[in-house]
Design goal:
Two copies of one chain form a homodimer. The first copy, chain A, is 33% helix and 19% strand. Chain A is of the alpha+beta class. The longest helix of chain A has 24 residues, at 30-53. The first copy, chain A, starts with 16 loop residues before the first strand and ends in a 7-residue tail after the last strand. The model of chain A is unreliable at 1-8 (pLDDT under 50). Strand 14 of chain A pairs antiparallel with strand 20 of chain B, so a sheet runs across the interface.
């Protein structure tokens, strides 16, 4: 059988990655079907209801006056339009008149509220109209970005263009004020997001000026003396400490950074700018090689919700905003259109299957903004007992229904609604299978639609079957995740074995496919004991338990002893079972572990003595669904060094 | 040979511990002679000069006016009188006209500044006279306490009573205002200290009213509705959340707490109040069994400079104020007058030989206020690079010459000046040898002065010789430290072996001593590998290296690799040598250790690989004397569990 593992090259001339939209794909079963059903059935409405209750929709009437409750917030529109975007992704798959009615009502309010010149922001209309476009720190352009994304999504899903008209009119105003007239009080957004939204608008409308505006914002960043920052922080916080092309380490507010990098990747791709692509890769590498938690969490400190320094990955105070991991996945997805390297999909899955999904409860209606690696309820209890002035910042222990700054819930909605964006991309006559999911749909190669049917229980199981439903000669590049041993992975086409020798994470299967050909990928989903780099001082001596892309953790509710002191052994057999938590079936691991005996002595030069015990582990994303208890992700190693 | 290990009983009727003052003892050599020479030769003047430069002495002229530099601070007098107290302890041993001239000048200023009614506080005279005795949070009584202690010390050393008159007059005013008239704006001090000072004044003058006032302050604490706290904190911060007799855990600001407990112990002892003594013991036990670092550091959080919760002993953010460990030693010294239990001297030595001495540089002129267990200069560098609003609180990496709040430097001076207070105590016809030091002097038994000469290089060596220079029948209770294996300790009298079977830490040698009898204590000064209780989550998997009372640490300057990742083995041979740092000879340990290989990979399911290396350790108190580098006290264990 002919198998060509052809390295397709990374130069932007040779490799022309194209996104295959989720619109072409229907998630038909497996892990993501259940998630999408939950999001469609529960999350969408739960977020809507919380936004309703907190006045975010009422604010769109622009009739708030001093003394009234629910004063509009500078970025409330972004919450609304992100929710619309999420809802639209579900409407894309199944229209729903009642849901559309709700959205149309909101769109109507925005239409009516929008000013003649296109301006649209409740806070800067009813609270501080005089401050409009003068305070860089105040998220007007961030909100505009989400408006653009929501509007495109709703137009695509329904053909209704009212919101798109609102967005375009506003974008045109922003283009004039910022790029053409320079009449605003600052030059680039304090909170990035509009860059990637403008690139999307450019692609959707074909209007060059939106790309020009995105380009203007990206290229001006870090060069303008008019660009202020918060009084308590620095230009790094807003990625304005250097021109973006000189930024080679990920700094400042992590969500802002990753939205910016996403926009930069869009621009690099669009303009085939290799230098800018190189900067994006350097930033990506800095994140995943020095600044990312094993759960794909980023932004290790709550101080500025920001990146800190290389190898600084504290466990209890890990900030790891849910939105930051969403943004990391979005950035990675853009990067794989620039370069065919499995490291991007690896990072995307690390983020998605751990921190992103950990950001929402199994019930679908409660959310984490922060995603720590360990929690100690004693520490929270002490902290809670302290007066305000002596409290430290600690992550909460149970998910909340809504936050004052509630960006994460609608972000999750739109992310899961469009999750199939992560399945396929193409370059020339190659179809890349990036993230395996159970779904059916088409990818376009040379103007021809190829129907592919993917069947898998990934990430719980390692088997993936891809049925080629359209005959043709093309290449399918199968991703072999970085965590999978290529020697143990098995690939077959119609039962015939293919050598699994991935090139930068992909095995290229190049052939003339007959209709019904079946590609079978068997990934070795073994439990792995993973250590962090010796430079990660917080994790020295510890190891995590990982299976496929899923990081496991232990909770006190399952393990009635001191989790921080438990020790595991690399060689231990691991037992895999399924268990149902809150109606959701999850994989559960059990393994032998050891712990020291409890004692009244604070310090001892005699060993405290050791006892064998069982350690029960659940996926990190499933923690905190059964009340408050201790949780940890990194365990001591019985064999100290773990150096084998 | 007759040896009676008689348990002398702990009830306050049977056991009547009496302090043997440092005044009776001269430190003649060994560890403390060098320290006292340094403090007399360098520290005393260095602290004086810094206080001079910062206006603390000028402020005593009480002529500051708005617009002038160096506005007096609410507790500047306490810095001055604590320095006088320290200087007086050295004068006690050797008069010095030039030094006394300096002190007399300061005393003169205070005499002239004191008001007719006795009031004395620069801030509340020249800055806010109207607020006098109205703000509990503002340290007036704390300063008065230190004035009393300084005045007694100076009077005892020189026979000059001018400062004592000032102190007594002020104490009388405080007695009237607080105890008799209740005319102040609050009832008990926000920062304790005066309680123990009043007990000292009572003992020195014999005036019952000072004890009554101490008693009033102690008994009223936690019962008054007029006792406010800082707006940012709570009553726990000032140990006012409960009546003191109901306080069984150490809470709030650690220095305040330990000064209070010291005063409570004084009162319990004086009044033979067993209930109060029991409370003191419960507080002590809570500290040493749940809340104390291995270095005798206490007050684990900078938030409120306070105790936190049981087993919360973080390494990098350990606050461990130098003054808190001094106060812990002072409290322990009072407790051994209530109960003959070696746990008190054990804790005192843990504090003294680690955190207290770590609070000052080997050069004698620079100080730490905070004493962390580990430092990572990368973390400090990142933090230093951040804008003010995003900084975290981190301990400094190099000792400072003076602080805005510079309580620790003069506290060290007075503490080291009177260190021989820790040598002996008596009860009936028993002499207790608590902390071994090289010194000669008398203890009083039944009105008879017994001359004892102690020769030792403790804590660097375990041999102690005690020469009885006065014949008589009495008991010498020899402390066998908790860390010492009684089986390996050797005791002889004139070469004849005594069974070492300590009762609560003491071996009672009861006999008719002839002049010249020589007691020889040989303590097994082995290097010990010490683990912390499994509940100390920050220390799970780690061990400390301890020799006698001295905790060792490793610095980057001696060990060119990642200290956090180094692993030691309980069984390793430890090599002991002497090395000179900044003119001071210190013991240095070297032992085999292991570390993982460096790597570019952030996470790996394959072991990073192990290398053998040498670990060089110095006493914790000697760290940060050779520039900035990484430091750690707790090392990973090669054999994971360390469970033997």
């Amino acid at each position: 059988m002919a198998v060509n593992n052809i390295w397709k090259g990374t130069t932007m001339e040779k490799y022309t990655g194209e996104q295959n939209s989720f619109k072409n794909i229907t998630i038909t079963g497996g892990f993501w079907k259940k998630k999408q059903d939950l999001f469609r059935g529960v999350t969408m409405e739960a977020v809507y209801d919380r936004f309703e209750e907190t006045g975010r929709f009422e604010a769109l009437k622009f009739n708030w006056k001093e003394g009234m409750p629910n004063r509009p917030h500078i970025f409330w529109e972004s919450d609304v339009t992100k929710w619309i975007e999420g809802a639209a992704y579900f409407l894309q798959k199944r229209r729903d008149p009642l849901l559309e009615e709700k959205i149309d009502e909101l769109v109507g309010r925005m239409e009516r509220a929008q000013e003649e010149n296109g301006y649209l922001n409740a806070y800067f209309t009813v609270v501080e109209p005089e401050a409009r476009f003068t305070r860089r720190t105040d998220h007007e352009l961030y909100s505009a970005g989400h408006l653009i994304e929501g509007a495109i999504a709703y137009a695509q899903a329904t053909g209704k263009n009212a919101l798109l008209r609102v967005a375009v009119t506003y974008a045109d105003l922003i283009d004039r004020v910022f790029r053409i007239e320079h009449s605003a009080g600052f030059d680039t957004p304090g909170h990035e997001e509009i860059e990637l939204a403008l690139m999307k608008l450019y692609r959707y409308t074909g209007e060059e000026r939106y790309k020009a505006l995105a380009e203007y914002f990206i290229n001006t960043r870090g060069t303008s003396e008019r660009d202020e920052t918060y009084s308590f922080t620095d230009q790094e916080h807003m990625q304005s400490h250097l021109p973006v092309r000189k930024q080679l380490t990920a700094e400042g507010h992590s969500v802002r950074a990753l939205y910016l990098y996403s926009g930069m990747a869009d621009l690099a791709k669009e303009n085939k700018e290799e230098d800018l692509a190189g900067v994006c890769e350097a930033l990506f590498d800095n994140i995943v090689n020095q600044r990312m938690y094993i759960t794909g969490g980023v932004g290790s400190t709550h101080r500025g919700e920001s990146f800190s320094f290389d190898y600084d990955l504290p466990e209890y105070t890990a900030y790891n905003e849910t939105c930051a991991s969403i943004a990391l996945a979005l950035f990675a997805r853009r990067m794989w259109l620039i370069e065919a390297d499995g490291k991007y999909a690896d990072a995307a899955e690390q983020a998605i299957y751990n921190t992103v999904l950990g950001g929402i409860s199994i019930s679908g209606d409660s959310f984490f903004y922060e995603n720590p690696m360990s929690v100690d309820p004693r520490r929270n209890a002490f902290n809670d007992s302290r007066p305000e002035g002596l409290k430290e910042h600690l992550p909460i222990l149970e998910r909340a229904k809504v936050f004052g700054c509630s960006c994460c819930p609608p972000n999750l909605l739109r992310f899961v609604g469009s999750i199939a964006d992560f399945m396929y991309a193409t370059s020339g006559s190659t179809v890349f299978t990036h993230c395996y999911m159970n779904g059916t749909g088409t990818v376009s190669i040379g103007g021809r639609e190829i129907l592919l049917e993917q069947k898998t229980e990934y990430p719980y199981e390692g088997d993936v079957q891809i049925l080629v439903k359209t005959a043709g000669t093309f290449t399918i590049a199968l991703r072999i995740p970085g965590w999978a041993s290529a020697e143990k992975a098995e690939l077959t086409v119609n039962g015939e074995k293919i050598v699994c020798a991935p090139v930068k994470g992909y095995v290229y299967v190049d052939r003339s496919f007959a209709q019904g050909d079946c590609i079978h990928v068997k990934l070795p989903l073994e439990t792995r004991i993973v250590e962090a780099n010796p430079r990660v001082s917080d994790l020295c001596g510890r190891a995590a338990v990982v299976r496929g892309p899923i990081v496991f953790c232990a909770e006190g509710i399952d393990n009635a002893y001191l989790l921080r002191d438990v020790r595991i052994q690399r060689e231990s057999a691991v037992n895999l079972e399924r268990e149902t938590i809150g109606g959701m079936e999850i994989p559960v691991l059990t393994m032998k572990a050891w712990k020291r005996k409890e004692s009244a002595v604070l310090y001892s030069d005699k060993p405290y003595g050791e006892e064998e015990t069982q350690l029960k582990l659940i996926p990190y994303f499933a923690w905190a669904n059964r009340g408050v208890s201790e949780m940890t992700t990194w365990f001591l190693q019985k064999d100290g060094t773990g150096c084998g």
